[in-house]
Every structure is written in C-alpha cells, then in structure tokens.
Amino acid sequence: MSNNQLIKFSTVETLESMENVIIIHDCIVEQILHNGQRATELQTNQGIILLPNDTHFVSSVIVRVLRPHLSLAVNASEVELEAVYIKGMKGDAQYPLQLSGVNYTQHTNDSYIHEICKKYSANSILKECIDTLKGYIVVSCSTLGELDYKNSNKQFDLIDNSQSLTTNGQLKVLLNEQDKALWDCMDNKIFAVMNKISSDSDNNDLQYWHETDKTWEKDIPLSDEIRKPLIVHDASTMSIGDDEDIEAPVGLDYHLHGIDNVYITGGALWPTGGSWNPVLTIVAMSIHLADTIYESERIVCQQ
Fold first, then answer.
1. Is the pTM of the predicted complex or chain greater than 0.70?
2. Residue 185: pLDDT over 90
C-alpha cells in the first residue's frame, strides 16, 4: 500500500451489490429543484435524484483477538488494513456499520501504524490500542445512525449574548423515541458482529478496549463508553430556495442572498442528510459550484 494513495473515501466495491443503493456514474447535476421553500431533488443528465436525510450519531467499539484465532498472513511486509461495510435498518432508519482490522508483523513503530490507520480507515484505531508485540489483531467496529429528520427537538438557534459572528450559533439535538431505539439497536449489532470474530462460544478470547480506564478487559464496555458525545455530518442549517423565498438564505445558484461575492455549498443546503458519509457528495457539489462560478465569469468576460 502506497502511503500517498488517496483512497480513504473510495467507493466501497460491495455497494454495487446492495439492494437499496444505486451508484450513478458520469452524473452531472443540472439544476437543484425545490418545492418553493426547500430543495427536494437534483435534476441531472441521468434523470431526477431525490435528496437524502440529517445529522448522525456514532457508536464505536475496539476489540483485540489473538492472531492464531484468525487466518491472516504471518509475514506481512507492510501494514495491512481490511474493512467491510454492512447495511442496517431499524424501521425506516438506516445505519451503516463499518468493521476495520489492522494486520502487521514486520513493523514495531506504533506511530507509523497509527498514521496508516488514520489515513485509510474511516473509524481509526487508537494509537494506544495498537499491539506492538504483534500477538493480537486489533479490530474496530463503528456504526453511523441517522437522526429522525422529523424530530422537532432539533434546531439551530442564535445565541443572543454572543458578539462574535463565528460563534453565535448553537445546534441543539434532543433524541426522540425513534432515535433512542435506533441507537440501542446499533449498539447491540456492534457486539453481535464482534462476537462473530470469536472462536470461543463464550467469547472468552475477545478483549474489549475500555476508554475510561484505558485498559483491555473481557467485559463489554458500557454504552457511555462506546457512544460518542457528539454529532457528526450536521446538515440543513442553510436552506436553499429562489430569490422570493424569504426563509432561504441561499439561492439555487449557491449564492448567499444580499452579498455579491459569497457562495455556500455542502451539507448545509440539504433538507436532510442521509445515513452514509456525505463527503463525496459534498466534494461533487463543491466542484459544481466552482464550475458554475467559472462559467458565469466567462460569460461576463465575453460580454
């Protein structure tokens, strides 16, 4: 594996075999469609694409298992990473689960191994969990759940007593019953997947990383240890609409209303944010914005 390969966000090969995932190649966005208040669809050269759903919450577990229990190369010349995505559903809510493992036999530099994990793995393995004695295989399992976009307890508020324009906003999220049920399901599925790694019916060969005590133990960690105290991929804070939509601060051409030279793109424009990592879509929107600005400036120059 080359250290310079930019493959962290490459399309997962198995996505093409998933029933509820459609990968569209050579797709060009021609127009953002809306219902008068919110963007709802993308008009592309390959048809209409519905925009996806909101902010995500995360659970993550790290285990280690003795190397002889897994069929892996014993003389790997480089650091080897394996990862697989598993789709999950709880009612109408989605949660992708990623299982990542790292294998190395010739390296004793934990900093180097950790840098490789950070660069190429979406759920990076902590440096302190890397076994430099090479007796164990370290595996990380993370789930990414979508918050219920219909939950009215999510809102972006203005902080009145803040004088700074960069810190005067606050995103509030309170879980509803659907969110809580999904998160419980995600945690249960993590441990169910980890148990599959074990060669022992009682899972005695698994050791779980306990972040609170910084130790390896056979007991599974509590929810407070595996649930991340944050939300990720927050979206939908800047609605998009035409010039007559007083609730939309951003125009259909990404232009911030009232300011001539400011444009906004990314997840902020979506009505909802989906359950999968949105990086590739955000990159595509950024490229489209750059093309849009270039084309408009080219036309002006020609005139």
1. no
2. yes
